[in-house]
Amino acid sequence: MAGPIEPPSKSFTSQKLDLQKRMCADRRVTDGQYRMFTRVLANMNEGTGIAIISDEAIIAEVASCGSQSTCKANRKKLAELGYWTVKPGSGASTSEYKVDLKAGMALMAGLEEQRRQRISRRRQKHSDWRARKRADRHGDVGQTVMQDPPYTLYTPSTETPSYRATEESRYLQGAEDNLLIPKSVLSLLGGGDVAEGRRLAEVVPPDRLAEILDFASKFGASACRGGIAEARDLALSILARRASA
């Protein structure tokens, strides 16, 4: 009798996740191609590096792949980009995908350093804005006051794979230099009140706010409720001290 099936090793799973992350940043890949690739990747065998899955299964399970012609076009494009090589199925045989777990490495070279530089710029922008606000409160001459915080408020319409892939691409490649504060984060920070969250965001220390936004950009606001609650308490305590001074 065969023993229990061993779960895939952490290194193998990590390699697949890293590959998906790199693909998110590849603007040559469409939403439909990303979805199909993710589904094929789930069937990949650790020992052989091959995924075997029929077009019928992909059509049934991937919303954006509604026909064999779409599957064929996606297969061809991702092969051209170097993500896999394909042995097409015919008759009773099923297509075999040889996935390259190292694909996209050149695209991502230096990405983490670029990301660190963007976070540093965002923190500096936030610090400069707060310094100007302090100067305005104390009536310093010659200071130009920023009337609005250096944030962009956006509200995701849906939590779809397409949205997540698009936002990850924007985040990784720096399409937006300003701090992005999702409405969900502001709502949690304000105890359900977005306007209150925006007010408190001005008080939260820049480093702490940047950490929260960095984490939320990867895992969502709900995953950092504890950190947001701590930031809210900190902001309220700072405001209370200012009021009593």
In total, the number of strands is: 5
What is the string of helix and strand elements? HHEHHEEHEHEHHHH
Number of domains: 2
What is the rounded Rg?
A: 23 Å
Proportion of strand residues: 5-15%
Shape: elongated
Poorly predicted runs of 5 or more residues: 1-5, 141-178
Provide the structure class. Answer: mainly alpha
Straight-line distance between termini: 76 Å
Arithmetic mean of pLDDT? 76
Tally of helical runs: 10
Strand order of the largest sheet: 1-3-2
Main beta sheet strand tally, sense and closure: 3 strands, antiparallel
Q: Name the helicity range.
A: 55-70%
Description:
With 245 residues, this protein is mostly helical. The chain folds into 2 domains: 90 residues, Arc Repressor Mutant, subunit A; 134 residues, no CATH class. It has 10 helices and 5 strands; from the N terminus they run ααβααββαβαβαααα. The strands form 2 sheets. Strands 1-3-2 form a 3-stranded antiparallel β-sheet. Strands 4-5 form a two-stranded parallel ribbon. Helix 6 links the parallel strand 4 and strand 5. Helix 2 packs across helix 4 and helix 7 packs across helix 8. It is elongated and about 80 Å long. The N terminus is likely disordered.
